[in-house]
Amino acid sequence: MSLGMICFCLLMMFNQIYHSTLLAAEAYSSPSIIMSHGKGDNRLIVDDYREAYYWLKQNTAQDARILSWWDYGYQITGMANRTVLVDNNTWNNTHIATIGKAFASTEQEGYNVARFMGADYVLVIFGGLTNFSGDDIAKFMWMIRIAAGEFPQVKEDHFYNKQGAYKVDSSGSDSLLNCLMYKLIYYRWGEVKVKRNEDSGYDTVRGAVIGNKDFKLEHFEEAFTSERWLVRIYRVLPLPAMDEKMESRTKPGSTLPMIQSKLEKPAF
Predict the structure, then answer these.
(1) Neighbour tally for 238: CB within 10 Å
(2) Other C-beta atoms lying within 10 Å of the C-beta of residue 91
C-alpha cells in the first residue's frame, strides 16, 4: 500500500473521529431535560423542566404525590424528590390506564380519580409557546388508547371531530375540548397572544387557535407555570368543608348528601 493511500485513510479516520466527537458533545451537553434552539450566539436555552422540578422540591410537602403521564416519573422522583403515581417502569398497565382515564374524563370525573389515587398535584407539559411538538396534547391520543384498553367507557372516536380529525380548535369534539387534559393544558392560554397576525390562544405546534378559551377550573388550582409555559402544575383542591352552621336534614351530626356524593369511588 502506497504512503499516499495510508495518509488518505488516516485523514479520513481523523475526520470521522472529529465529526463523531462534535456530535457526541452536542448530544451529551443537551440532555432531554434541557432543550435548546438555534446555534452559537443565537442559541436559546429552555430550562423549564429543571425550573419546575426545583419549584416542586421547594414548595410542596415532602410526602406530596404527583400525578403526571409516566414519561416524567423518573425525572420528578430524581430531581424534585417527590412521589409520583406512575413512572417509566410501565409494567402496571392498569395503573397507567387509570391516569389516562383521568386526563380523558371531564374535570369532575378526573378530579374524582385524582383524589381516589391520592394525588396532591397534577403536572402537564405544553409546547404551544416554545413550539415543542412532544407535549402532552401531542401524546394525548396514546393516553386515550391505553385508557380505552382497560376502561370501555373511554372511546377514542369521541375525541375526533366530525371530519374524523384530532383538532384543538373550534372544530374539535366536545369530549376533547372539555376533558381534563385540555383544560389543564390550555387554562388561561386564551388570554395569551403569541403572533401579531393571530388571535389570542394560538397554539404554535398545532397551528391553530384553541376552541375552548373561556372556562374556569373548579377542582384544580394553578400552582406553577414555567417561564415558557412548558411545564404546568396544578394543586388538587380538597373537598369543600361543610359550614358548621349548616344542619343536615338526615341525622344530627351526619354528612350532607351533597358532600357524601363527592366522596364516592369514581366509576371505573
Answers:
(1) 9
(2) 6
pLDDT for residue 30: 39
Cα 102 to chain centroid, rounded: 12
Q: What is the mean pLDDT of the chain?
A: 84
Question: Is 51 within 8 Å of 233 (Cβ atoms)?
Answer: no
With beta carbons less than 8 A apart as the criterion, state whether 198 and 186 touch: no
Q: How far apart are CA 98 and CA 102, in angstroms?
A: 6
Cα separation, 236 vs 250, whole angstroms: 30
pTM for the structure as a whole:
0.78
pLDDT digits (tens, 9 = 90+) for 104-148: 999 999 999 999 999 999 999 999 999 999 999 999 999 999 999
CATH of domain 44-236: 3.40.50.12610
What is the Cα–Cα distance from 231 to 246, expressed in whole angstroms?
40
- CA angle, residues 35, 36, 39, in degrees to nearest 5: 160
Angle CA(119)–CA(217)–CA(244) in degrees, nearest 5?
75
Q: Which residue has the cell 404551544?
A: 128
